[in-house]
């Protein structure tokens, strides 16, 4: 590593050693990948979405391959926030990487409870999941209207004493309105995009491939949409933006930084290449050396239009 | 620390029947480490072509030569790409992964029951299992699809073959043959791999005779290491049930553990 290169970023009080975060849902609680690479390398880990009670999730199949991407319909399967606090935080604290608790709920009270509970736990930030497309209650139901987002964020803000990131859905008419509502509600940062609602059909059997019929699209297929939305949102709000959607390598990550993201998340890329996170960090650093960029923050919003 | 996936060399590729082939790959690590019933996760194409890896059960290993075999049926984009691999090609593989079949010395009499491409992981099981009596019951749709007959015959004491149309071996389902065998001489353990309907019928049959069994499950898969929660199947959990990952908790499960809906 080049000592003259500074990869550190600060997202509204959340300090990261580099701008690469494992995206929620694709990385579980880090245990599986820790057997293979050093989690200390990561800027942060956004853990699998947590709910008040354990959640069973949706019936399989939960994944379908599509051109340059995948659809998933996991449906927030998780062991519940108490198990996370008791078993997973102590494990994650063996590593020097930021812990971002992604939280979901059916009701505003659920989100309040989660924010309060996790503000008293040893995590570095809370990411409000207002964007999962695979559950009937909560999440995207709140996240797809500016009023819904403002209501949840402004209520939760009072209970959250940690940096509050709001994860946005792209399944809306104008994502900048949603981002502005999150900012007005008191969000410290917004992360985008969650998956795009889609579906896959098996013509032979005339049935949907996913058990839940519809699912969320991720992977390289959605990168152009994600870049556009990050670009628009970063111009519309003053709070920092965390960009994601189809990032597979350092060049992709740099593109998101240039579009206005202060940090990036990636997940789906790891299914094809389990070293994607590490290669992305190395790729950003290589780009910086080649382009004589001293601090990664210089790249943020550096798009020449 | 392990590097997650490794590039190995293809030793050979051989068609077994009209749509199924055997890929032999050189890897001392996998040949040595792999247990019967475990799987590997393969990157089929370059870049975004066939984006996800494909999970394939290991058919057999040659621990002396440091190679392993994968039996693969061409079913879609990924397996079609895999069918084009030839000697000397590089292949990106993650594995061995998951839990294989249990092999307890107390199980003196075993039967391995496979249907179609489900027969593959049973070959190494039969080779490695310490039982005195090892039988295999393999089912295929019709005679042209019968594969690996000689390899199975050499790896067990008795091989029975069933075809749906009766064009080879016994006419009927493997579970019909299994019922006769169990009534004749109850085994200590039965292993299943094949279509869900077959495994479900087999597990139900054996419950009547109090014979334990294991099943090898299949599901559309993401990461392959237990992180993404996509490849789940339904398992019992006390009086309740849960979804658990086929890649990490399986692919082999106890027959009384899985809930077949």
Question: What are the key terms here?
Answer:
heterodimer; A: about 300 residues; alpha/beta; TIM Barrel; eight-stranded parallel β-barrel; four-stranded antiparallel sheet; 16 strands; about 30% helix; B: about 260 residues; Elongation Factor Tu (Ef-tu), domain 3; Rossmann fold; Dihydroorotate dehydrogenase B (pyrk subunit), domain 3; 3 domains; seven-stranded antiparallel sheet; seven-stranded mixed sheet; 7 helices; about 35% strand; globular
Plain-language structure description:
The complex is a heterodimer of chains A (305) and B (261). Chain A has helices at 31-34, 81-92, 108-119, 140-143, 146-157, 175-185, 223-236, 250-259, 269-272, 276-290, and strands at 9-11, 14-16, 20-22, 44-46, 63-66, 69-72, 98-103, 125-129, 164-167, 189-192, 196-199, 201-202, 207-208, 214-218, 241-244, 261-266. Chain A has 305 residues and is an alpha/beta fold. In chain A, α3 (108-119) packs parallel to α5 (146-157), α7 runs parallel beside α8 (250-259) and α8 (250-259) packs across α10. Chain A is globular and about 50 Å long. Chain B is an alpha/beta fold and 261 residues long. Chain B has three domains: 5-97, Elongation Factor Tu (Ef-tu), domain 3, CATH 2.40.30.10; 109-215, Nucleotide-binding domain of ferredoxin-NADP reductase (FNR) module (Rossmann fold, 3-Layer(aba) Sandwich), CATH 3.40.50; 217-261, Ribbon (Dihydroorotate dehydrogenase B (pyrk subunit), domain 3). In chain B, 22% of the residues lie in helices and 35% in strands. Chain B is built from seven helices and 16 strands. In chain B, β9, α4 (149-155) and β10 (158-163) form a beta-alpha-beta unit. In chain B, α5 (174-184) runs parallel beside α6. The interface between A and B is large, with 38 and 33 residues.
């Amino acid at each position: 590593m080049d000592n003259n290169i500074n990869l550190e970023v600060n997202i509204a009080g959340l300090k990261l050693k580099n701008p690469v975060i494992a995206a929620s849902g694709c990385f579980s609680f880090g245990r599986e990948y820790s057997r293979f690479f050093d989690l200390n390398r990561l800027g942060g880990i956004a853990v699998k979405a947590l709910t008040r009670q354990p959640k069973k999730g949706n019936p399989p199949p939960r994944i379908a391959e599509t051109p340059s991407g995948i659809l998933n319909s996991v449906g927030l399967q998780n062991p519940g926030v108490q198990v996370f606090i008791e078993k997973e935080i102590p494990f994650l604290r063996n590593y020097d990487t930021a812990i971002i608790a992604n939280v979901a709920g059916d009701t505003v009270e659920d989100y309040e409870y989660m924010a309060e509970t996790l503000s008293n736990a040893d995590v570095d930030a809370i990411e409000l999941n207002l964007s999962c497309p695979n559950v009937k209650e909560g999440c995207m139901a709140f996240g797809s209207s500016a009023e819904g987002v403002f209501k949840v964020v402004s209520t939760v803000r009072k209970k959250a004493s940690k940096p509050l990131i709001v994860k946005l859905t792209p399944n809306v008419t104008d994502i900048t309105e949603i981002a502005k509502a999150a900012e007005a509600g008191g969000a410290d940062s917004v992360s985008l995009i969650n998956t795009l609602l889609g579906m896959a059909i098996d013509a032979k059997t005339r049935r949907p491939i996913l058990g839940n019929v519809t699912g969320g699209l991720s992977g390289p297929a959605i990168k152009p949409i994600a870049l556009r939305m990050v670009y628009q949102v970063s111009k519309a709000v003053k709070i920092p933006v965390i960009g994601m959607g189809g990032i597979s390598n350092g060049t992709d990550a740099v593109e998101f930084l240039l579009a206005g993201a202060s940090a990036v998340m990636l997940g789906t890329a790891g299914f094809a290449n389990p070293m994607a996170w590490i290669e992305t960090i190395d790729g950003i650093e290589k780009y910086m050396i080649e382009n004589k960029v001293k601090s990664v923050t210089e790249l943020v919003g550096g798009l020449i239009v | 620390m392990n590097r997650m996936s490794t590039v190995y060399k293809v030793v050979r590729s051989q068609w077994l029947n009209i749509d199924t082939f055997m890929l032999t790959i050189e890897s001392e690590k996998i040949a040595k480490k792999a247990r019967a019933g475990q799987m590997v996760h393969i990157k089929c194409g370059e870049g975004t072509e066939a984006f996800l890896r494909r999970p394939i059960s290991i058919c057999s290993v040659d621990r002396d030569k440091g190679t392993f075999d994968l039996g693969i049926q061409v079913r879609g984009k990924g397996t079609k790409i895999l069918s084009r691999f030839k000697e000397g090609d590089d292949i990106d593989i993650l594995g061995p992964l998951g839990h294989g079949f249990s092999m307890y010395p107390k199980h003196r009499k075993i039967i391995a029951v496979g249907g179609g491409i489900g027969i593959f992981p049973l070959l190494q099981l039969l080779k490695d299992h310490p039982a005195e009596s090892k039988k295999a019951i393999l089912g295929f749709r019709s005679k042209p699809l019968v594969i690996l007959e000689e390899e199975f015959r050499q790896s067990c004491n008795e091989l029975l073959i069933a075809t749906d149309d009766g064009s080879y071996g016994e006419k009927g389902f493997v579970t019909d043959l299994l019922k006769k065998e169990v009534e004749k001489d109850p085994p200590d353990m039965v292993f299943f791999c094949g279509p869900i309907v077959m495994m479900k019928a087999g597990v139900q049959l054996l419950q009547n005779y109090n014979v334990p069994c294991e099943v090898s499950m299949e599901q559309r898969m993401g990461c392959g290491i237990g992180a993404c929660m996509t490849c789940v199947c339904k398992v019992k959990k006390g009086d309740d049930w849960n979804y658990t990952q086929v890649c990490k908790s399986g692919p082999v499960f106890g027959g009384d553990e899985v809930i077949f809906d």
